[in-house]
Write a structure and sequence with these properties.
eight-stranded parallel beta sheet, 389 residues, alpha/beta, two-stranded antiparallel sheet
């Protein structure tokens, strides 16, 4: 019988018999406020902040809140199975940890702690190119667990080629290419603190350990760190990339390729035509385009355009188990969660990340059951109503 993630609530109640209560709130929407109080304004702003006045991040939440679940009664939901097959992999639930860069600003154990938490719960971990830990060390921390690599597509072809080779050698099975960050957006919370960790060599670990990157430096990183940072900044992103450039990635990566940041159905169709394997419907959690369409509002049209030819993943705004239910009902095959696990990491290290994963999946399991569904494939558009529609 499949694991019932909902059993986490009984574990909590039984622990309460000895006077123990959870170290972090089980309402994950409270984590941001706690993190704001405990961490410095620079790190908190970097994770919690958004582009412009925050309108896109607010729209992401509003688009999920606006959709309400219509539960169905007297359906047998005794045995439930949250497992899904995505990108050719069997996953225990429709959840993965999204790529979040520079996690060392949240907790000294950084990416390895989050990766170990994901591995312990069996959910994939997506490692950011901009991690504060080299990809090989993160892979080592995960053992044989499922891991995916997110690429910030650099101007330097040899560095990109080297990253792909290293990721493959380290056991990352899928490539997530972030398309929505060819330039850094206008982010007032970071600007007001003049806070950009990369300029201090934080979040550059994959670059500063890369042979192709190092070959472009006149001196080793430790001898001239400012020159290394300047070299990184000069190559980090490339606003000149276009659809034909995807061929280079396909030539240098033999696993699934997923395009992250797709919001328009025509872009999903072009991804399929280009031989890609999936898309992530995402506006970077509201961090790139102020005034952008909410990710959940874009999801149904992108899912229709994908038409089974592409895996459809979703992020931007997921905070609760019922949010995951709604994303599944709107056409997602699985979701990525970002900020909540970063807050969990900041507040309680690996244990905090595991708490976030278990809370999300317990709530999803219960929401599915109490709405009359046994699997993630159950919910559809008819299971939601839209307020004001």
């Amino acid at each position: 019988m499949a694991k019932h993630w909902a059993d986490f609530q009984y574990e909590i109640y039984l622990n309460g018999m000895t006077g123990a209560v959870p170290r972090l709130p089980t309402d994950l929407t409270r984590l941001e406020e706690l993190t704001e109080r405990r961490l410095g304004p620079g790190p908190v702003g970097y994770v919690a902040g958004s582009a412009g006045n925050g309108s896109t991040a607010a729209a992401n939440r509003a688009a999920l809140e606006r959709r309400r679940i219509v539960p169905r009664m007297l359906r047998d939901v005794h045995d439930r199975d949250l497992s899904v097959r995505v990108l050719g992999r069997e996953l225990p639930a429709p959840l993965a940890l999204a790529p979040v860069g520079v996690l060392s600003i949240m907790h000294p154990d950084a990416e390895p702690a989050a990766a170990r938490a994901a591995a312990a719960q069996g959910v994939p971990f997506v490692l950011s190119s901009a991690s504060s830990t080299p990809m090989e060390q993160v892979a080592e921390a995960m053992g044989e667990a499922e891991r995916w690599f997110q690429l910030y597509w650099s101007k330097d072809r040899e560095v990109t080629r080297s990253f792909l080779g290293r990721a493959k050698a380290a056991g990352f099975t899928a490539l997530f290419v972030t398309l929505d960050t060819p330039l850094l957006a206008w982010r007032p919370r970071d600007l007001d603190q003049a806070y950009l960790p990369f300029l201090h060599g934080v979040g550059t670990a994959n670059y500063f350990t890369d042979p192709a990157f190092l070959a472009g430096l006149a001196k080793p990183v430790h001898e001239d760190p400012n020159a290394a940072v300047a070299h990184f900044v000069g190559m980090f992103a490339d606003p000149a990339k276009t659809w034909p450039d995807l061929e280079f990635l396909r030539e240098n990566w033999d696993g699934p390729i997923v395009l992250k940041g797709v919001l328009h159905p025509d872009d999903a169709r072009r991804a399929a035509q280009a031989g890609m394997d999936g898309v992530v419907v995402s506006n970077h959690g509201g961090r790139q385009v102020a005034g952008s369409v909410a990710a959940a509002d874009a999801l149904p049209r992108v899912a229709e355009a994908a038409d089974g030819r592409l895996a459809v993943l979703f992020d931007s705004g997921i905070r609760t188990g019922d949010d995951i239910f709604k994303a599944l009902a709107l056409g997602a095959d699985t979701v990525l969660v970002g900020r909540p696990y970063a807050y969990g990491l900041g507040l309680d290290g690996q244990a905090g990340v595991e708490h976030v994963i278990r809370c999300l999946l317990a709530e999803l399991d219960l929401t599915l059951a109490l709405s009359g569904h046994r699997t993630p494939a159950g919910p559809g558009r008819d299971d939601l109503v839209e307020e004001g529609a």
